Each structure stands twice: as structure tokens, then as C-alpha cells.
Predict the structure.
Amino acid sequence: MVRLIAFLVGLFFSGMLLIGLGDTVITAIKEPAVPSVEAEFHEETLPVKFAHDGPLGKYDRGELQRGLKVYAEVCAACHSLNLVAFRDFAALGYSEEQVKAIAKAWKTEVPSINPETGEPATRPAIPADKIPSPFANEVAARAANNNALPPDLSLITKAREGGPAYVYSLLLGYRDQAGYKNEEGKELLKEFPEAATPAGLHFNPWFANLNIAMAAPIVSDDQVTYDDGTKATKEQMARDVSAFLTWAAEPKMENRKSAGWAALGFLLVFTVLAWMSYKTIWADKKH
Amino acid sequence: MSFPWAQEYKPQGTVSKWVDERLPLPRLVYNAVGAGYPVPRNLNYFWNFGVLAGVALVIQIVTGIVLAMHYYASVDGAFNSVEHIMRDVNSGWFIRYAHMNGASFFFIVVYIHIFRGLFYGSYKAPREMIWLLGVTIFLLMMATAFMGYVLPWGQMSFWGAQVITGFFSAIPLVGEPLRQLLLGGFAPDQAALNRFFSLHYLLPFVIAGVIILHIWALHIPGSSNPTGVSVKGEQDTVPFHPYYTAKDGFGLGIFLIFFVAVTFFAPNMLGHPDNYIPANPLSTPAHIVPEWYFLPFYAILKAFTVDFGIPFTGIIIIPAKLMGVLAMFGSILLLFFLPWLDTSPVRSGHYRPLFRKFFWYGLIPCLLVLTYCGGKPPYTQWVVLSQLAAAYYFAHFLIILPIVSRIERPLPLPNSITEAVTGKPLPAAA
């Protein structure tokens, strides 16, 4: 009985699936899928290497400090970083005094109340504060940005396929859409005339749907003046801020990797000893 | 229970004698995983994975309890509380990554454990009850893993919850009200998150309970073995301790090396980037995909594209969506009937030439294809492939296996485990 019912159930499910298969194939032949502009023109991330790549990689403190500067002077105008506190900047190689100074000099102040009247007010940031958002709330952020919401950047390198390489590619990926060709030499506006970038958006083939609300943030060399004298080319700034945002998303990466090596070393010894005792105990037993 | 030649627990000291007379817990442990449990001497490394699954459960419970001390089950605070664990709790990043990857490794070892059972016929008499309890554990694990994935309240958490709870709305008539009752709202929200957290904390202990029954049931007939030949005498077995404790210790080392390598050096490899975006009920991700261990079942769900009805009348009896949901649950529930679908008296796939062909060239590729297609967007090629593979999946268990076990001519079995191991017949005296 079990086998008879099973046979009928199996016949039903498999049969419906095979009918579905026929249906899928017929539909695909009748109405072949039209290639989308994203499938043809979306670009893979640019090849870029970072000091923190790989199981032995460590953050380059100089790079992180330069990246912080790019974030503070360029990105922070629109993007919050609300999971990172000023005190965390100590990990970038700043002293306690320097962290205090960075917090105090931050362009946006921290929401507070007036201690005398109780009215809403602002005060300079202290190291214990999270980085204050440039906008009071989502409505204010959208109002100032043509109804687009600049995402918080605290986790951006973990929240996008490709991570830091994606951020780097996106920052340098702004192109003139007129006459834009992909690597196969296909011209976008000739293949997809209806895919012209709408007003208020910006063409960037590294963005998922090719049109991003954010205007190119890094527009010219020396947009930021680095304290360590590094020449601030566009590539350098994009790299530095991508590294900084990787740190912002994964501040414990160095602890993680060094603990990983210690754990692996321990386990290697443990496993060798376990293997030896296994072999010893079984020495007289054929199996 | 167990074999007559099993070693008996003999308490030595006064204290252990005193304890043994009042609560023989050490005796229980001795007979369960100590020298008192005789085990076939010819087990291969596939038999390590039961113990490894137990270890994985312990890792999940220990890390999970610590996470629950810092986690905050609130739609406004859950995401940030996980990030608080990652950034500010002492070694919180380790606890969280270990729990997150521990779930994946739990499924890896359980899948290998199930694979072992399927190939070596461990589900056959007299071990049906062990198998039934095992499938129950698997179902509980899936529920627990799904609810745990919702807790960080990222984009995939939210939309995964939306899709999975949407299954209930496929039930005719009562579906939608039932879904709302279970969720405590029209969409996953605070009420649902609280329920998921409560159940996610409860179910692992239910799993632990069913594991105790699973091991109890195992100790009635004793462990199976790669030849599938039953134990005939003392020479066929070795005491679990020290023989298999030593082998399991080595297996555990290898398992932990893989686990540590992924947890410390590629902790987000098995996850989805979208879950680092806080849940937003107003923005649907481009592709909603579950965690990798659910992909084969997700592929089966999506493979049903046509309604079942009376042709040319437009009457639909079972809509495609409901059929997909039924098939997805059916694909696991059918495992409960496996002991009665596969009627071959030979257990081990080694001695079943026809079964082995369908297993290696049918079932295994079919599962790999389903896993791969489950994570792909619904383009024609992936839909066609998953329909083909899903059709084979049901046919394999429900049609092919019963027929194969009837028509197959098994290879000659060794007379005993010892003969298989030593390659010579038993001495007459033994």
C-alpha cells in the first residue's frame, strides 16, 4: 500500500514537473528572453589589491587615516557612519588627544538639549559619541538629495557583492553615457536607446541598474589634501576611502585573523596527537 | 539491549559505588559512549559524522546562549544589537561568527550523516526508528536555522521570513488568516520577531531531546557498518571507548580545522551581503535567496510552474504555488517512508550494483543541480534544470527505488564483518 501510494505521488509530482518543463521550454521558444541592459552593460569590479587582503593581511594605518580624511571631507556631507564611534579611531593609530580633537572639530554637531531651556540644541562631539549623521532624519536626507536616501556607510563593504573593490569601482566608475561602449564594443545607447539615464541620475556601469542618484563624489585630483604628503590622485582617494570603509565594517579583522592562526596552530597539534593516539590504539586491530 | 559480550561497568572506588547504587548515571554514559558499547570494527570515516553533528549542536547552543545575553529582539534594535556584539562585546565577533558559520557546518555534517545513511542503508530494519527520529531532527534543525536567520533583522532575514511564512497563505481558504495568526500581523514585525526568538531558543533543546531518543534507539540494534552485514560475534566488534573515541577525536580535529578556517578567515563566505542591510519592508531585494543549505528545497518549490486542473475548462484544482509548497515539504517527508520504499534486504550500497548506479549517477547529481539552481534567478535554463532534477528526485525515491529493490540481483555478501576485514573466512572454532 505504501509503495502504491508512493508510486502515484511520485508519478504526480514528477509528471507535473515534466509538464512544467515542457511549458517552460515552449514559453522560452515563443517569447525568447530579451537581454537586459544591466546584463549587457553592468561591469565586474575593477581589480584592486589592499594591504588587508588575504589571511595574513593587516590594515595599513596610513591608508586608513587618509581614508578617514576622504570620508570626513567628501562622503560625510551626505552619508552617515552611525555604527562607528570617535573613540574607535584610536585603532587608526591616533592618540587619545588626537581623537578628542577629531571629535571636537567634526563638521556636524551631536543633537543635544539646551541644559537651561530644554530646547533641542547641538553640542560638539566627544570620543564616546557615534559619528553624527549629516541629516536629522530620513525626510531631511531625501529632501536634500532629490528624494534619494544616501545609505549609511558603516557596513557598506560587507553589504555589497565585491566589498571594498565594489566601493572603489563605483567611485571611479562615472562615465559619459553618450557614446559609451562596453568591452565587446557594443554602444549602449544604440543597443538600448530607451536606457538613457533619466534626469537627476548619473550613469555608472558599476552600479546595479547603471543609473545612480549620487553625483560623482571624487571629481578631481587633490580634492583632499593629505597630511602625510601623499599625492591625492582620484585613484588614491578611492582606494584610501575603500580601505577605511572596510575597517569601519570590520574593525576586529586583525584580532580575528591573528586569533585564527593561533586556533589553527593549536588544532594542528591537537589533530596530530589525536591521529597518533588513534593509530596506537588501533595498532593491533585490523579494520 | 546491546550485545551479551559488552563490558560491564564496575565502579572501583567507594564514591563511585555509592553513586552507582543510587543514580547509575556513570553506568549509563559507560554503556552509551564508553567501553560498554560494542561497535563494529570496520566503520569508515563516514561514521564520524554523528558525533560531529552532536559537537556542532553543542557549539551552537553554547555560542547561542552567549549571543542571547547581548541580543535585543526588537525590530528597531535587533540589527544594531548584532553589530554591538560584533564591535563592542568582548570577543563578540568570534561568538557571532562561530554561531553564524556553526549553523552552516552543522548542516554540512548532518548532510554527510544523512548521505551515509542513504548509501549504506542505515534506515533499514532493524534501524527504522533511528532513521525516523533522524528525519525529525532534520526538520527541527531546518525550523531552528530559519528562525535564527531572521533574528539579525537584515534584508534577507525579513524577506526570507516573508517568503517562508507566505507558504501558509498557499493553503486553501484558511491560509491567509492562518498566516496572520502565526505572524501576529500582516507582515513579519515585532510580534513575529519575538516568536522567532522564543522558538529559536527553545527548539535546540527539543533537538537535544530527540537526539537522546535517536541514540537510545541506536543502542538497541547497535551501529550499522559499511558491509551492512549484522554483527555475528565478539570478534566483529570493538568497545566504543577507546577505539572510536580515539577515532572521533581525530575526526573532530579535522572538522574543527575546516570550521576555524572558514570562521576566522572567510566568515561571510557562506552568507548573503544583503543581510548586512537593515530590514526594510518597503524595499524588496532583487533576488530573495535562502541560506545555502535550503537551496535544494527552494529549487523544488520554484520548479512547479503550471497549475494542476482539468484541461480546457480552466478549473484549477491545485495551483502551482500550493503544489510547490506541498512538494517542498513532501521532498523531506517522503524520507519518513524510505524504510518501506526500499525493500531490498541488502543494506550496503556496496553490494547493490543497480542501486549504486542510480545513487551516484542519479540522486547525487540531482541534489547538486538543485542546490546550484536554487540560488539562481528564474531564467529559463535554471528553471528547466531544476524541473528536470526535481522530477528525478521524486521519481528516485517514490518510483525507482521500490522497483530497483525488487529487480536487483545483489552481489554476494561477506559471511561476517571479520571476514570482510581480514579477507579470510573465520576460523572454525570462532
Summary: The beta strands of chain B are 38-40, 237-239, 308-310, 315-318. Chain B has a mean pLDDT of 94. Residues 34-269+286-422 of chain B form a domain with the Cytochrome Bc1 Complex; Chain C fold (CATH 1.20.810.10).
